[in-house]
Design brief:
Blueprint: E1 2-8, H1 14-28, E2 35-41, E3 47-48, E4 51-52, H2 57-65, E5 89-92, H3 95-105, E6 113-115, H4 129-132, H5 135-156
Parallel strand pairs: 1-2, 1-5, 5-6
Antiparallel strand pairs: 3-4
Helix pairs in contact: 1-2, 1-5
């Protein structure tokens, strides 16, 4: 089983969108038994007294608009050092996430840490809708990245 953790700053916009987009892509290809997929945050900004914030409403709207099923109870969770041994890939949204994950894990240039857009021909970072307010662009980046990631993993693991 391939274990993927999607990661962003707060786990309320980009990484939960990626988690549920990837789950749908996997399900659509009949590969559910080959993947375990979650998402987490690098910071506690959206976690208060041990309880994480739900998916941010505009991110939820993008999932609904694109008919992506998601867990209504999904709440932000914090990435931990212990996660490193439990996942094969930590797929993040931007350069800051890479730096934070290496700090959390105590690694340097870990081969397990990948940027989502690195699987596409476009490269770069997933647009951050927290600052741009363009949740549609973030969704488009995430969808193309997840599609490319799944293609990569199914070709690599055949």
């Amino acid at each position: 089983m391939i274990r993927i953790m999607f990661v962003c700053h707060g786990n309320i916009c980009r990484s939960p969108m990626a988690e549920f987009v990837m789950k749908k892509l996997v399900r659509d290809r009949g590969l559910e038994n080959r993947f375990y997929i979650l998402s987490a945050a690098t910071h506690t900004d959206e976690i208060w007294d041990g309880r994480g914030s739900p998916i941010y409403p505009p991110a939820r709207e993008q999932l609904i608009r694109h008919s992506i099923p998601f867990d209504e109870g999904k709440r932000a969770t914090l990435l931990t050092k212990e996660d490193y041994e439990n996942f094969d890939y930590f797929v993040c949204m931007d350069d800051e996430n890479v730096r934070c994950m290496n700090r959390i894990f105590g690694t340097f240039n870990s081969p397990k840490i990948k940027k989502l857009m690195g699987f596409t021909n476009q490269g770069g970072n997933v647009s951050d809708p927290w600052y741009t307010r363009d949740f549609g662009q973030a969704y488009d980046d995430i969808y193309s990245g997840c599609t490319a990631l799944l293609d990569y993993l199914t070709e690599e693991k055949k």
